[in-house]
Specification:
The chain is an all-alpha fold and about 550 residues long. It has helices at about 5-35, 40-45, 45-70, 85-95, 100-125, 135-145, 145-165, 170-175, 175-190, 195-210, 220-250, 260-290, 295, 300-310, 315-340, 355-365, 365-385, 390, 395-410, 415-425, 430-435, 440-445, 480-500, 505-530, 535-540. Helix 15 packs antiparallel against helix 17. The radius of gyration is 25 Å and the shape is globular.
Length: about 550
């Protein structure tokens, strides 16, 4: 972003009103909890709902930020940070071994949905909730629409850690909270609960006529049998989850708003899953087409129109989409949670006649989380990894891109970068280049980056920025600090050679003066990379 006063003033206005909305949202959600006007605080106890919602939000921070680090770090030689970041090294040593990154991402996707559903149970208002004497207009805007919950989840639980982790991967991942989170994600995948996704993965790869790359040896006979047993039981659980959820919808035994007909609720359920799927797939497809030629992008009218918007100007629309997409996806998650979470009134029979214990489990909303994870998230990401251009060749993609950019332009989530700046300052995070250099410097040290896969078909890692990423900028935009640093290092190398080759004292003096100037410029760039001041927040909001 420009440093012009008008731009800074615009950002300041957005930051102030966004933080004010966030504070207001937190106040009314906490008031709902202590007035016992959320499902968990009413059915169990306000203290439990209060603790759970904050534990869930903080854990979501680790899940979202951890993903950015786990996906961005594989190309970097781990020996470069073995000593400086021992916990990060330990996490990546296991998490990037073989196909463990795919396993982590699979389990992590379910964790996001499960945590959002817990947040919904803890903080979403019950029917006809009223708090703090809010007028109907504010009550409808923040309570019934779910806006308060959406803002809390996006700004506190997701975007702020994504901002920091996208540039400070090593520092962010270097704690045992992330180590525990990665272990939980891997355990969820190992349970087989999500193994139906692998069946979808194989079908998609077959349709694309491509082979799924693996970093492991083929499974042995016993391991292959165990794999397919888990695939079958995962499919069985998924089918049952669908059956139970639809039965509850038609029996009026979910937390869906009163007055909404069962058929409308069912249509809304599938429609929102399709929207989530499109947004999840678009994330993968956009990163894939960023690596394609302009000719390939213009293979169809809608793909061409979408890419023109996506890579317009200085390339800021791609991270802008990521911010707006997060708002859309979380909004859909909360509505899906309301549609699928079961709620049995006293005296009513259980869904499908199950036991009380099973019904209590159903009431947690985890069946809906499972359906959404596999059908509305992972499946669409896998399709987009195999057919990115086909994914863009539809007017729906174009419309959703415009919607996400419009949401981001409102600045409603700008408060996330304020939180990120505070967190970064308190934690002392520094950019990764400070510890491991740029990609060019690593290559010069014989520690060049190595991609984990040559092809992203059938993998979930294609929707995040890689290590040392640079967003697509136009030729008219100024270089980033990282790009400036690379150029300065090249100039220094050239000047050193010229000093050696100088044939007179005057030539040597000129080159040495130029070298001192470049050295000072290098120190300044290093200082910019180290110092994470509030002035960096606006810039980093464009680099998520």
């Amino acid at each position: 972003m420009s440093d012009e006063p008008g731009v800074n003033g615009c950002y300041a206005i957005k930051a102030i009103y966004s933080v004010a909305l966030l504070i207001f949202s937190v106040i009314i959600v906490m008031a709902l909890i202590f007035d016992e006007q959320t499902k968990l605080s009413r059915d169990v106890h306000p203290a439990l709902a209060f603790v759970l919602i904050w534990v869930a939000l903080l854990w979501l921070c680790l899940v979202e930020g951890g993903q950015a680090s786990m996906v961005g770090l594989p190309p970097i030689d781990r020996e470069l940070y073995r000593e400086s970041h021992p916990v990060t090294f330990r996490i990546c040593e296991h998490g990037h071994k073989g196909d463990n990154l795919d396993r982590y991402l699979l389990g992590r996707q379910f964790m996001v949905l499960a945590i959002v559903f817990v947040i919904n149970q803890s903080g979403a208002p019950v029917e006809d909730a009223s708090v703090l004497g809010l007028p109907d207009v504010l009550a409808n805007a923040f309570l019934k629409s779910g806006l308060a919950m959406i803002l809390m989840t996006c700004m506190i639980g997701q975007l702020n850690t994504q901002v920091n982790a996208s540039h400070c991967m090593l520092d962010f991942l270097n704690d045992y909270g992330n180590w525990f989170t990665v272990k939980v994600a891997m355990a969820i995948e190992a349970s087989g609960l999500l193994h139906a996704s692998y069946l979808i993965q194989m079908i998609v790869a077959a349709l694309a006529g491509k082979t799924i790359e693996s970093n492991e040896e083929p499974r042995s006979g016993f391991m292959n049998l165990l794999f397919w047993v888990r695939v079958l039981y995962s499919c069985a659980i998924l089918i049952f989850a669908f059956f139970a959820t639809i039965a509850a919808l038609f029996d009026g035994k979910t937390t869906m708003w009163e007055g909404v007909p069962e058929v409308v609720a069912l249509i809304l359920f599938f429609l929102l899953m399709a929207v989530v799927g499109m947004l999840e797939g678009m994330q993968i497809a956009f990163f894939a087409v960023a690596k394609m030629t302009d000719e390939e992008r213009k293979s169809s009218k809608w793909a061409s129109m979408t890419c023109d918007v996506l890579f317009h100007g200085e390339g800021h629309n791609l991270p802008g989409f990521m911010v707006g997409r997060q708002l859309c996806v979380v909004s859909c998650f909360f509505v899906i949670a309301r549609v699928t979470s079961m709620d049995i009134e006293e005296g009513e029979s259980n869904v499908l006649g199950v036991s009380n214990g099973a019904q209590e489990f159903f009431n947690t909303g985890l069946l809906g989380a499972l359906i959404t994870t596999i059908v509305a998230s992972i499946a669409w990401q896998l399709v987009a990894s195999a057919f990115p251009l086909a994914f863009l060749s539809t007017p729906i993609t174009y419309v959703l891109l415009r919607l996400c950019l419009l949401l981001e332009a409102t600045g409603i989530c700008t408060g996330a970068w304020v939180i990120a700046a505070i967190h970064r300052k308190a934690a002392g995070f520094q950019r990764d280049e400070v510890y491991v250099g740029t990609a060019e410097e690593r290559a010069a040290m014989q520690h060049g980056d190595t991609p984990i896969h040559k092809s992203e078909v059938g993998h979930l890692a294609g929707g995040a920025f890689p290590a040392g990423h640079d967003l697509p900028y136009s030729e008219h935009s100024g270089p980033t600090p990282t790009q400036r640093r690379v150029r300065i290092m090249e100039n220094i190398d050239i000047l050193k050679e010229q000093i050696k080759a100088a044939t007179s004292e005057d030539e040597t003096a000129v080159f040495e003066a130029a070298l001192r100037k470049e050295t000072r410029a290098l120190q300044q760039v290093n200082h910019e990379l180290r110092v994470e001041s509030s002035k960096d927040v606006d810039t980093e909001s464009e680099d998520v």
